[in-house]
Each structure stands twice: as structure tokens, then as C-alpha cells.
# Entry
Amino acid sequence: SSDHRSSGQASGHNGLPNGWTQATPPQPRLSMQLSEVHGNWGQEGYGTVYETYGRNSQRDLREDGDKSISLRDKDGSKPEDLDKHTLLELEPPCSSSLGIQLGEVASESEIRNEEHFSESLSSAWEHAGFPLYLAEQQKKLPLPLRELMETEALEILTKALKSYRSKIGENHFLTKELQRSVEELQRRR
Amino acid sequence: MRVKEGSFLWYLYLDKIYCLLSFRNVKALLEYFRLLDVHRKNTLNDVLFYHFLHYVTNLKSRQIRMVFDMLDWNAVGEIGFEEFYLLVCILLSHQNHLEEQFMYCHSRHVFRLLDINGEQRIGTTNFHMYRFLFNIKREQLREFFHNFNITGDHLNYKEFKIYTIFANDKAKEKQRMEREKVEKRKRLKSQLKKIVYQIGVCQRFLKSNLFNKHYE
# Structure
């Protein structure tokens, strides 16, 4: 009776499909980099935004206890490159102007390995939003499960809508509410 | 009663000792409940509940109505998430043949559910009415009444608790015997295989001896 779980899904000890991933950045290095960056910039506006954003993301990630990822393992990069990676990953992904200025500041502040830096900058940009994306996804359900739920709910609610229409009529406010929910789910499919 | 294969509930995992869902499973279930809660009242009315249960199980209409009446303990015509969660745990425990374990772990909740009239006691008729959910056997109930000298046909909570211990022990005993049977069968099979192999070896040996003697 419990055999279907091992055959019917990817194994997760909690029974959900393995859409749940786990991520934490290496935190001690992050806090070090935050103070360095703040010192290097000397521009309070950006530094404040950066620091606040970095702190918030750190706190959010710490609050969700069961996360672990090693960026070193992921990138296979050198320690000095990793510092730049960890710097950049705290940046909001949508702020391109900030990113350009960050690049400028970073290239000014980092004297050695400018070639490496420009290469790693492009790859780091890809990873900049990744831990934040993961942190946000941790609070959401995995996509396959959500799709299954929505498909099933749509079928149930469609049948319920028929019952509502036959029992209380089409113009009843409850029928209209249910119809709106069904239409919303259909739009999402 | 069966949970529909491939449905959302089918993928949930019920802990075999506590007969409850994990936190993540509950979170997922809450999302599912909210999808069905189209009127945004944190409840499901009888129509929505009926179609939900009709979709995910093979229960008949009469049984679905009985389950709804059982869960709608304050007769408001709606059930909240707590009752929904309890029902899902009951369905999954039935699916996994853990009904006795579930009743033993959550005897207070089950007693309140079966005490339809709110009299702080359960009649045998109630037991029989909800047998399809909890897999309560008539013979077992009779045996229990006889062994524990229960007079009348009602059980109070303490007697019900003793019944759950009794039923759980019986279920574990049955599982143990079934496991032993399976193991015995496996042992017999492997012994038979060995014997057949040895007979084969002896036959080959004899044949080769005869063959050699013939040529000599």
C-alpha cells in the first residue's frame, strides 16, 4: 500500500516530489563582504540600499532553517572570484543601473585579475538572483505539485459549478463567485 | 474505500507512527483547501465537499453525506480546515491500513466524531455506520464486548480507549502473523530450491559414473 509512493514519485522523505531544493550562501563570507563593500563605496545611498538588502536577504535565508548550498561547489571558482560572486549575489536582480555601477566600483576597487573579473562578472550575473529566487521558491510549492492541485481543483469546481447552476440558478452570487474562480483557474492552465 | 490513484491526496505521506502529515504536507494541503474555498470563508460547504470527496475517493453519495454530517459537528453546513485535515488523515490511514493505529493515536478526536448525538458515549449502531471509514469489524466488536464485560450497547470514552488498544493489538498481531507466513514461505522456497539443486548434482554425478563404467 505504501509501495506506490516509491514508484509513483521521486523520493522525498516528506512525500512530496523532489521539487524542493535547499540553498544557503556561505554567510560568514557574506557579512565580511558587506562591510568591505560599504567601506569601498563610500557612497551612503548605494551602500545603505546594498547593506539593507543584503541584511534582509541574509535574515530571510537564515529564518528558513533547512537550506544548504555551497556556491564554491556550484561555481568551482577561486576564493578571490568567490568574493566577487558573493558580493554580486546580494544585489537585487532587476536593478541594472546599480549593477553597472557595482561593476564600475568593483573594477576600481579590485586591482588584480581584471580579466578574470570581467569573465566572472557575466557568469556571476546569472547567479546573482539565483539564491534569492531559491529563497522565494522555498516558500512556494513545487511547480508539478501546484499544477496537479490546480488541475484537480478545476475539475472538482467545474462539477460543483454545474450543481450550483442546477440548484440555486446562474444568477445567484455564490454561483457567480464560483464561476469567477473556475475562470481564473482556467486562465492559469 | 480507496483514494483515487494519482490524485493529490494520493501523493501525501502519512507518518506511520503518529498517523499525521508532516508540516510541508500540511502546507500543501492548506493550499489545496484554499483553491477549493471559492467563497473565501476558510470553509467548504456541502456541495464543494461532496464533489471533492466524490472525486478523490470511491465513496457513494450516501457515505459522503454521512461523512459530512459527522465532520460538521456544530451543524453549520460547512467544514473548516481542521476537520478537512482530520478527514484527509483518516482517508490516508485507511489507504495505508493504519485505521487501528489512527484510532489509537487520536482516540479522543475519533470518539468526538462518532459521538454524533453529543451524549459522551457511542452506540454500536454508530460503530457500524462508520465501519467503512475506520474498518471496524463486527466480530471484533462483539469479542471486545464479551471479553471486557461491557454491558449495554454503548461505550464511554474510557471503554472506547480500551477498545482502540484492543483493536490496535489485534491488528499488530495479524500483521506479525502475516509477516511470519511470508517469511516461512520464503524459507520453504529456498529450501526446496536447495533440494532440487542437490538432486540435480547427484543425478549428474551418477550419470557420469555410469558413462565411465560403460566405457571401461
